[in-house]
């Protein structure tokens, strides 16, 4: 990239790179490929129904159903939480319990 002297120049240069990438004249610097995630298997290991799983972890029942039926993929934040639920369920439970018992902050 040319010498970048301020944020405006950096943004303009980045937009130029994006145009080149989309046009196929430049390779992206990196590509994020999300790991495969089996939401149905994760939920099954918890022993919870779709509705209870959704309520416990802050998802909508529709989202859980769509993920399990492969109509949608979880966004990055949801994917991260799902991986934590799968690999460290006790840690997630401790955090959720601590948060639910914490007093609400004054507005």
From TrEMBL:
Q: Keywords of this protein's UniProt record, alphabetized?
A: DNA-binding, Transcription, Transcription regulation
Q: Does the record's keyword annotation contain Transcription regulation?
A: yes
- Domain of life of the organism encoding this protein: Bacteria
> Which Gene3D superfamilies does the record match to this protein?
lambda repressor-like DNA-binding domains (1.10.260.40)
Does the keyword rRNA-binding feature in the UniProt annotation?
Answer: no
The membrane spanning regions, by residue number, are none
**InterPro entries, per database record:** HTH-type_reg/antitoxin, Lambda_DNA-bd_dom_sf
Any one Gene Ontology molecular-function term assigned to this protein's record = DNA binding
Q: Which PANTHER family match?
A: ANTITOXIN MQSA, MERR FAMILY BACTERIAL REGULATORY PROTEIN
Q: What is this protein called?
A: Transcriptional regulator
């Amino acid at each position: 990239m040319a010498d970048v002297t301020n944020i405006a120049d950096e943004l303009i240069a980045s937009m130029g790179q994006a145009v080149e990438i989309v046009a196929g004249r430049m390779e992206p610097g990196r590509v994020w490929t999300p790991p495969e995630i089996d939401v149905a298997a994760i939920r099954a290991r918890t022993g919870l129904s779709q509705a209870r799983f959704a309520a416990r972890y802050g998802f909508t029942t529709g989202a859980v159903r769509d993920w399990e039926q492969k109509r949608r993929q979880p966004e990055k934040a949801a994917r991260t939480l799902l991986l934590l639920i799968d690999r460290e369920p006790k840690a997630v439970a401790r955090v959720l319990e601590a948060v639910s018992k914490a007093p609400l902050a004054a507005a």
